[in-house]
Amino acid sequence: MVKSLNDTVTLNNGVEMPWFGLGVFKVEDGNQVVDAVKAAIRNGYRSIDTAAVYKNETGVGKAIKESGVKREDLFITSKVWNTDQGYEKALEAFDASLNRLGLDYLDLYLIHWPGPNADTFKDTWRALEKLYKDGKVRAIGVSNFYIQHLEELLKDAEVVPAVNQVEFHPKLTLVELRQYAKEKGIQIEAWSPLMQGKLLDHDVLKDIAARYNKSVAQVILRWDLQSGVVTIPKSINEERIKQNADIFDFELSKEDMEKIDALNNNERVGSNPETMTVGFE
């Protein structure tokens, strides 16, 4: 059981990744993202997840520098965007992200979306493998890859992805994908774990939360961890950042886990990886 904000999961290459972190999707660059990241780090978070397309890597880097926490004690993730896929372009995109962040290396670098063309993400993966072998990133992975994408990637990959970050919440539980990833040694990580707030008034979740004297958000995030899924909820409010992480003093029962699992109806708030083409046209 994950017992504290400091607990980590060992990835398939031996790197330790925090189970819990802060996501900064749609957080404005400048003071907003700087303040959010510093608040998270001040309250014990050690994992920060950003991406080139979020356009806030500069602010994330500033917050890291001003946080007072040693770089080696943090776990920083970014992602290569669709318009930068391909071997040479991905290498250039990585350098640009690293420069904006003001860092010497990343802990995790992901392909943001598979796109419609397997050849493209395979070329991008070769670039990530080079970055990994050159020691510029401690682990490499993918985001929004489903089983067919992973199978295609693994036909030619020299390095098995360490992480697959996907939309995951009680309405989208991806049972088959999670089982496949487990068999391949790929850690699943949740983006949009709270379904952008759309689950906070759900009666089943409210009933469970009341019995544990926790919020619905806390119950969902605890369910993530007990499901073996790394989670990175987004918030810009320090009090909410603290509340999101206050999930290590209780454990959901097997019955309540199953009740939450049963809410799945394959509903998503983001794009479908099987049809997402933005930036690939």
UniProtKB/TrEMBL annotation:
Chain sites annotated for binding substrate: H112
Pfam families per the UniProt record, alphabetical: Aldo_ket_red
Keywords: NADP, Oxidoreductase
Active site positions: Y54 (proton donor)
Site entry: Lowers pKa of active site Tyr: K79
Keyword Glycoprotein: no
Domain NADP-dependent oxidoreductase: 31-264
PROSITE patterns, A to Z: ALDOKETO_REDUCTASE_1, ALDOKETO_REDUCTASE_2, ALDOKETO_REDUCTASE_3
UniProt-listed Enzyme Commission number(s): 1.1.1.-
Molecular function via GO: oxidoreductase activity, acting on the CH-OH group of donors, NAD or NADP as acceptor
Family: Belongs to the aldo/keto reductase family.
Name of this chain's protein: Glyoxal reductase
Organism of origin: Bacillus safensis
Lineage: Bacteria, Bacillati, Bacillota, Bacilli, Bacillales
Underlying gene: yvgN_2
